[in-house]
């Protein structure tokens, strides 16, 4: 089998485990190289697991999150690199306060683009994944991650741009991850009701923004990866500061998930190779370019 390479670009540690993780584990298990690039250290993330809400964790949150990321990458079987920017945090208020000086979302776009172009030319991925223009949800770092990823996808292929980072490399395909789909939540919620149990998504569905349904219509690619859902969940649990093990992520029995919705969803946003939609493989249409 030809070794192909996949680069998944994410804003914070833990994003790689909640968005497309089973797909990453599947391709790694199939012998392909998979690199997760994390743009920030997650330093301003809240501690969402009550068991980890401790003074000694707050006092060294950056180091803790680095350790969590290393463990998650090991579980998924992927390589990992930090891009080295500072988490912007999620501003609260109406209007929200200004973003902190020097954080990822306010540094000039050219800085993270140049760093990501360097990584692209070093790793030479055939496929990249990232977020849509809304960031998956409107966190400033997620939106910036989209902007940086798209700009770097284009710039890495242009030998006139950033020549100091090495020979140009044209990534064949760029995908957006579409992980939180109403149809999936409703299907699982209905399965809980049929079994006389309270489902985890009632509040999500009640407060659902109908404008988000347009993203479901943009899905082009459904990757079968149910056999790797347990690795996704184990990687999520590795981010112990961010994931409550008793939370909604883990409420649905694994058998139901595998039976009802055995795929992860993506949108083909850019392609330099011919492919036929819909797809079931991020590498569809890619030949051996080595």
Characteristic terms for this protein:
290 residues; alpha/beta; Rossmann fold; 7-stranded mixed β-sheet; 11 helices; globular
Task: Give a quick summary of the entry.
With 290 residues, the protein is an alpha/beta fold.
Describe the structure.
The protein has a single domain, classed as 3-Layer(aba) Sandwich (Rossmann fold), CATH 3.40.50. Helix 4 packs antiparallel against helix 10 and helix 5 crosses helix 6 (140-155). With 290 residues, the chain is of the alpha/beta class. It starts with a strand and ends in a 19-residue tail after the last strand. Strand 4, helix 6 (140-155) and strand 5 form a beta-alpha-beta unit. It has helices at 15-18, 21-29, 55-58, 61-76, 110-123, 140-155, 182-194, 202-206, 213-217, 229-238, 254-260, and strands at residues 5-10, 33-40, 79-85, 127-130, 173-177, 221-224, 263-271.
Shape: globular
Q: What is the total number of structural domains?
A: 1
> What is the CATH superfamily?
LmbE-like
The count of helical stretches stands at: 11
Low-confidence stretches: none
Give the secondary structure arrangement, pairings included.
Blueprint: E1 5-10, H1 15-18, H2 21-29, E2 33-40, H3 55-58, H4 61-76, E3 79-85, H5 110-123, E4 127-130, H6 140-155, E5 173-177, H7 182-194, H8 202-206, H9 213-217, E6 221-224, H10 229-238, H11 254-260, E7 263-271
Parallel strand pairs: 1-2, 1-4, 2-3, 4-5
Antiparallel strand pairs: 5-7, 6-7
Helix pairs in contact: 4-10, 5-6
């Amino acid at each position: 089998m030809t070794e192909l390479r996949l680069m998944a670009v994410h804003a914070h540690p833990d994003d790689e485990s909640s968005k497309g993780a089973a797909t990453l584990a599947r391709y790694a298990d199939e012998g392909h190289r998979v690199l997760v690039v994390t743009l920030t250290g997650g330093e301003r993330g809240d501690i969402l697991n009550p068991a980890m809400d401790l003074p000694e964790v707050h006092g060294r949150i950056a180091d803790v999150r680095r350790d969590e990321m290393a463990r998650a990458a090991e579980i998924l079987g992927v390589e990992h690199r930090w891009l080295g920017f500072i988490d912007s945090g999620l501003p609260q208020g109406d209007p929200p306060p200004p973003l902190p000086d020097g954080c990822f979302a306010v540094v000039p776009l050219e800085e993270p683009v140049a760093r990501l172009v360097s990584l692209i030319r070093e790793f030479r991925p055939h496929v990249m994944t990232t977020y849509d223009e809304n960031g998956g949800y409107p966190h400033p770092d997620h939106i910036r991650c989209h902007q940086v990823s798209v700009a770097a996808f284009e710039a890495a292929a242009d030998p006139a741009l950033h020549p100091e980072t090495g020979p140009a490399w044209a990534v064949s395909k760029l995908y957006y991850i579409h992980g939180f789909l109403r149809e999936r939540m409703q299907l699982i919620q209905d399965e809980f009701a049929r079994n006389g149990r309270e489902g985890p998504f009632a509040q999500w569905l009640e407060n659902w923004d109908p404008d988000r349904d347009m993203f479901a219509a943009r899905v082009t690619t459904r990757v079968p990866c149910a056999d790797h859902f347990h690795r996704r969940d184990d990687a999520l649990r590795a981010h112990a500061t961010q994931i409550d093990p008793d939370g909604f992520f883990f409420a649905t029995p694994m058998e139901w998930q595998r039976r009802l919705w055995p795929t992860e969803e993506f949108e083909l946003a850019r392609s330099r190779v011919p492919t036929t939609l819909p797809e079931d493989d991020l590498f569809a249409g890619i030949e051996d370019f080595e």
